[in-house]
């Protein structure tokens, strides 16, 4: 038998589990009673999208932060696109088509950005591997 | 009457450059010729170097105070209307002056080491004293060389004393309005002191390497310098972020802007260095890792300066940029780092030392933690430089911003937190799984609680929220458990005094608590912020969280440096409308000197929440675009940073050591005979 199941902490786990299930269940019910969730409003969605885009005029600010006139215009446009039923990704694509790849703060995953996206993961694996090798080498 | 001070300052700067060269030469020749007399001359030159640089900075301050606009730097960054405090702070408000300040701080730190070295040599036998004398001489020589490089850079590309002759401006262009804040007085000096601390660590690492032996004593000397550098860097980053939150933009506290990253990357490496130094002190292993991290941290701080001052990246925190400066800093960088890495490559193989370690031990976790921090630093570096590389390779343009950095940084923090949680519970050297078992069951509960919280919140980026909750809870849980467990007595070779060991544990607990508090604050602000963007005019209100914000009136404000319109917005309780809890006064300021328009937020700080209001464009005669935001636990972000700084101070506070005989053992026995021969 796995030593884990003989642990005196097993009972503690059950207590915590059931407690958290009660807690979670209760809050879930509490929110469920208020009626179906509406999801974030158009304004909140528009704010979220404007935080992912770079203002074409300001030095290095999101559309959301920028006070340049073009930023206000684009924020309005995002809002109206949302109202017309466009989804987040479609709006981002639309902006990239109009203003170029630079407007997007989260670069697309493509061959040219491979090093950017995979770099940290490769670094982590190599780093941890080296660290472990350094220690294992010394029995 | 003509003000001669700039010329005097200029001459002092030239003198300090020559003194730096002399100090380095006398030290180096003294070491190689085994000549104590020359070394003492080198030390005296170093002290003189400090005083000339101090006088140079004072003459620059004097030029600011008397409004000598014939000096280009003063004319560009000051104004006769500016308050005296800002006139002085303006000295380090831009490139030239801040470089001078930086160099002076290196000289100050070096001079302090110089003055205190006599005290450190007390009680050593004569051979050890010679070794240490040579060590300090090498350290000061390297610092003098760094100062020499920076001074030449100052004199040839960014002379703060350059005159605007013969057409002297009648009035100065003002200090950038955004900089006219208490933040300017505190933030840059702290950051520069942090960088200077890293410079000293760099010099100390090279001094150790060149000596050909890694003495435990020398690592003890290194420890307070590393900790001080780390405290200053933590403070510099935290104050910078606090300043940006209060003064800049629209309520963000970290923008992942290149200039922020430039100071954050060295902080990450310095944090790794602090932990690696603990590892080296306790186990006597991994000394080369520690020295390498010293070199790396300094190199990255220099790379950061290059990034900030060359203007090759676009930043909100625009620094007066000039491509020729960029080139010069790059040359300095290549020179210093290249030389350091060369020395490391030549000297390190001889210093390798095999120490046995168990895979499951505190050593492993500390090492892996340091590695994760370095990986995080390089990931941020990659993201910061990628747009540049992309453009250089002709692939077009792109932006790398907050969404990318969060995607990389949050999971890396999570991994670091797992290691941080386990490490304090596991003993040095010993390999037992018991602490893991103890931790396993609470962690299951924590994961479930975090999952439920995430599920219930239903936001975008649920994974990040989950990771944030899990890390904070896990860290707190593990800290609680390590308070309860007795700190494990260390096995020899190095017996540590019980008080020192307790102090180290306290520092660890406070520091890690700080990290947990910052994670809680950051997670909470990122996912539970409630905000609204709306048009508001007098008489209009907006309910938000437990409050109602009512726009009462618009008022004009006039000060000596700006005119502003100010909204007076009352905070009322949502349940009782007539109960006014306070007022918020966001402003739109227009500066008299240059007509620049700046938005100044109104913030009501609280322990549990911040209320944030900023004022945007005027939309009609009476209405403005107003952004209101409820930020739960926002102050915790900086509270955590303060705890981290406190932890550093606890660790760095000197312990009185009556006997140092036990410490004179060499880490590397094989090389020490040569070392004692070197003088």
Describe this structure in words.
With 139 residues, chain A is mostly helical. Chain A is built from six helices and no strands. Chain A is extended and about 60 Å long. In chain B, strands 2, 3, 4, 5, 6 and 7 form a six-stranded antiparallel β-sheet that branches. In chain B, strands 1-10-9-8 form a four-stranded antiparallel β-sheet, with helices on one face. Chain B contains 18 helices and ten strands. In chain B, strand 6 (587-591) and strand 7 (597-600) form a beta hairpin. Among the domains of chain B are: 356-496, no CATH class; 529-636, no CATH class. The model of chain B is unreliable at 489-493 and 659-679 (pLDDT under 50). With 679 residues, chain B is of the alpha+beta class. The radius of gyration of chain B is 27 Å and the shape is globular. Chain B is 62% helix and 10% strand. Chains A and B meet through helix 2, helix 3 and helix 6 of A and helix 12, helix 13, helix 14 and strand 1 of B.
Give a concise summary.
The complex is a heterodimer of chains A (139) and B (679). Chain A is an all-alpha fold and 139 residues long.
Number of strands of chain A: 0
Structural class category of chain A = mainly alpha
CATH class value of the largest domain in chain A: Mainly Alpha
Give the H and E element order of chain A: HHHHHH
Q: In CATH, what is the homologous superfamily of the largest domain in chain A?
A: Cytochrome C biogenesis protein
Q: Can you summarize the main beta sheet of chain A?
A: none
Please tell me what the overall shape of chain A is.
extended
**Overall mean pLDDT score of chain B?**
85
CATH-defined fold name of the largest domain in chain A: Helicase, Ruva Protein, domain 3
- Give the beta-strand count of chain B: 10
The separation of the N and C termini of chain A measures 31 Å
Low-pLDDT ranges of chain B? 489-493, 659-679
* Proportion in β-strands of chain B: 5-15%
Number of domains of chain A: 3
Organism (chain A): Shewanella decolorationis S12
Pfam family, one (chain A): CcmH
Protein name (chain A): Cytochrome c-type biogenesis protein
Domain CcmH/CycL/Ccl2/NrfF N-terminal (chain A): 29-138
């Amino acid at each position: 038998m796995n030593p884990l199941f003989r642990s005196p902490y097993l009972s503690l786990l059950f207590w915590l589990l059931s407690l958290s299930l009660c807690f979670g269940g209760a809050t879930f019910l509490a929110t469920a009673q208020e009626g179906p969730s509406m999801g974030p409003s158009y304004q909140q969605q528009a704010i979220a999208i404007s935080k992912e885009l770079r203002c074409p005029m300001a030095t290095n600010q999101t559309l959301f932060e920028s006070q340049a006139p073009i930023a206000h215009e684009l924020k309005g446009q995002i809002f109206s696109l949302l109202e017309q039923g466009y989804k987040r990704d479609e709006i981002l694509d639309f902006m990239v088509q109009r203003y170029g790849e630079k407007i997007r703060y989260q670069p697309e995953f493509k061959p040219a950005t491979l090093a950017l996206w995979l770099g940290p993961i490769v670094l982590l694996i190599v780093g941890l591997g080296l660290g472990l090798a350094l220690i294992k080498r010394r029995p | 009457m003509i003000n001669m001070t700039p010329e005097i300052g200029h001459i002092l700067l030239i003198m300090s450059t020559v003194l730096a060269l002399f100090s380095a030469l006398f030290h180096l020749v003294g070491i190689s010729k085994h000549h104590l007399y020359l070394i003492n001359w080198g030390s005296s030159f170093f002290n003189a170097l400090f005083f000339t640089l101090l006088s140079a900075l004072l003459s620059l301050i004097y030029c600011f105070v008397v409004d000598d606009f014939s000096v280009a730097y003063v004319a560009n960054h000051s104004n006769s209307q500016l308050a005296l405090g800002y006139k002085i702070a303006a000295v380090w408000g831009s490139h030239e002056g801040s470089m001078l300040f930086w160099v002076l701080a290196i000289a100050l730190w070096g001079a302090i080491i110089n003055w205190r070295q006599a005290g450190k040599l007390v009680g050593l036998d004569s051979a050890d004293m010679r070794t240490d004398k040579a060590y300090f001489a090498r350290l000061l020589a390297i610092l003098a060389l760094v100062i020499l490089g920076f001074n030449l850079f100052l004199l040839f590309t960014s002379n703060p004393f350059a005159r605007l002759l013969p057409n002297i401006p009648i009035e100065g262009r003002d200090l950038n309005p955004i900089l006219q804040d208490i933040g300017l007085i505190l933030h840059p000096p702290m950051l520069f002191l942090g960088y200077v601390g890293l410079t000293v660590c760099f010099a100390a690492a090279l001094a150790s390497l060149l000596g050909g032996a890694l003495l435990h004593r020398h690592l003890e000397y290194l420890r307070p310098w590393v900790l001080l550098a780390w405290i200053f860097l933590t403070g510099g980053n935290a104050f910078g972020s606090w300043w940006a939150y209060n003064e800049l933009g629209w309520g963000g506290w970290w923008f992942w802007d290149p200039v922020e990253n430039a100071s954050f990357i060295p902080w990450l490496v310095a944090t790794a260095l602090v932990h690696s130094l603990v590892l080296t002190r306790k186990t006597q292993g991994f000394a080369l890792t520690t020295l390498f991290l010293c070199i790396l941290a300094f190199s990255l701080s220099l790379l950061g300066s290059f990034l900030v001052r060359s203007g090759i990246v676009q930043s909100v925190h625009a620094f007066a940029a000039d491509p020729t400066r960029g080139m010069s800093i790059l040359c300095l960088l290549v020179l210093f780092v290249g030389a350091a890495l060369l020395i490391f490559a030549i000297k390190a193989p001889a210093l390798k030392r095999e120490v046995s370690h168990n895979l499951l031990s505190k050593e492993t976790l500390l090492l892996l933690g340091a590695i994760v921090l370095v990986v995080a630093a390089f990931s941020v570096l990659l993201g910061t430089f990628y747009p540049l590389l992309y453009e250089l390779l002709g692939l077009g343009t792109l932006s790398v911003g907050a969404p990318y950095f969060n995607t990389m940084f949050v999971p890396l923090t999570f991994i670091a937190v797992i290691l941080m949680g386990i490490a304090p519970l596991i003993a040095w050297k010993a390999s037992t799984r018991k602490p893991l078992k103890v931790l396993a069951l609470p962690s299951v509960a924590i994961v479930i609680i975090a999952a439920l919280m995430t599920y219930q919140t239903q936001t975008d980026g649920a994974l990040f929220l989950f990771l944030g909750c899990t890390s904070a809870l896990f860290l707190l849980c593990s800290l609680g458990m390590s308070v309860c467990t007795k700190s494990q007595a260390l096995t020899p070779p190095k017996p540590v005094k019980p008080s020192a060991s307790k102090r180290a544990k306290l520092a660890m607990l406070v520091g890690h608590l700080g990290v947990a508090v910052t994670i809680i604050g950051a997670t909470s602000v990122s996912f539970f912020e409630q905000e609204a963007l709306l048009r508001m005019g007098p008489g209009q209100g907006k309910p938000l969280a437990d409050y109602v914000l009512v726009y009462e009136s618009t008022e004009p404000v006039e000060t000596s440096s700006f005119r502003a319109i100010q909204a007076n917005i009352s905070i009322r309780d949502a349940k009782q409308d007539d109960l006014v809890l306070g007022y918020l006064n966001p402003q739109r300021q227009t500066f008299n000197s240059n007509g620049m328009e700046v938005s100044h937020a109104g913030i009501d700080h609280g322990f549990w929440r911040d209320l944030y209001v900023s004022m945007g464009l005027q939309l009609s005669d009476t209405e403005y675009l107003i952004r209101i935001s409820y930020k739960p636990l926002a102050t915790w972000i900086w509270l955590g940073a303060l705890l981290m700084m406190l932890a550093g101070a606890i660790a760095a506070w000197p312990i009185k050591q009556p006997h140092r005989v036990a410490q004179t053992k060499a880490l590397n026995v094989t090389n020490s005979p040569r070392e004692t021969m070197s003088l």
